[in-house]
Structure formats: C-alpha cells, structure tokens
Amino acid sequence: ARRRYEFEVSLTSLAFHPQAFTAQCGASLVESRKGRDALLRYVDACFEHQETYMNAALGDARKSDVDAVFATIAEKSGVLDDAFTKEAFLSSLHDWESAVKPAYTEHKIALGYGVYGTPKHVIDGKLVPDTESAWGAADWADKLKSL
Known about the structure:
Elements: H1 20-34, H2 36-48, H3 55-58, H4 63-77, H5 86-92, H6 96-112, E1 121-123, E2 126-128, H7 137-146
Antiparallel strand pairs: 1-2
C-alpha cells in the first residue's frame, strides 16, 4: 500500500544569522500581501542573493541598511509591483500584524518541533533526524521506509 505525504515548507530563522529574522519578516510580509507563490519566489531570491546580507557584506550595518538589502531582494524576485512597491515593503517590514507576528509564530512552531538548525524535517509531528533539503523522491522513499 502506498502512503501519501503532504510536504509543507515552514520558515525559521537561526540565532547565529543576525539578519535571518529580518529576512523571515520579509517573507511573512510578502506572503501576507502577495500569497504563497510570491513568498517562495522571495525565499528563493534570498538564497540566491545571500552574499548580500551575510555578515561579511554588511558588517556593522544600520537596521535601515539591512532592510534596504531585503527590499532589493524582493524587487529582484519580482514580487513587487505598482500596488506593493519597494517603499511599501520597507514601510511594512517591521509591521507587527503583517510581518513580525507571523514570522515569530512560525518560528515558535519550528522551535516546538526541536528545529534549531537547518535542514530539518518534521513528519507526523516528529522531528526526523538525518535528512537533507536537496533530497529527491528516491532519497525520501528510502527515509520514509525506515520510519
């Protein structure tokens, strides 16, 4: 008998990446304004351009400088438009309801499962050790057989 699994991507930020929570707030904001597909485009762009917000690139930057980096990433990802502009992204990036609270809520869920690093995967409410985000179907099939 075949079992079906539904995969869901949940974001969390890591404490040792100082800009990670701002990135997560940006993701929550994009999702609240533009939906899940836009969130995934923004997240992909964050990974693609991560050298722009790592410690080596930003050093002792001001918060507004960090925010500007993520606004540029949002722009590059194609999630901004006439209704959701770069300026709107910047003015709402630290808004409690549309950015901070949803990011913090998602972060607490991850911590509740014991997710303190990446990549991590939770199946049936349990953290599954020794998994990788780059896995394909065959890798997951092998892992799921062992559970």
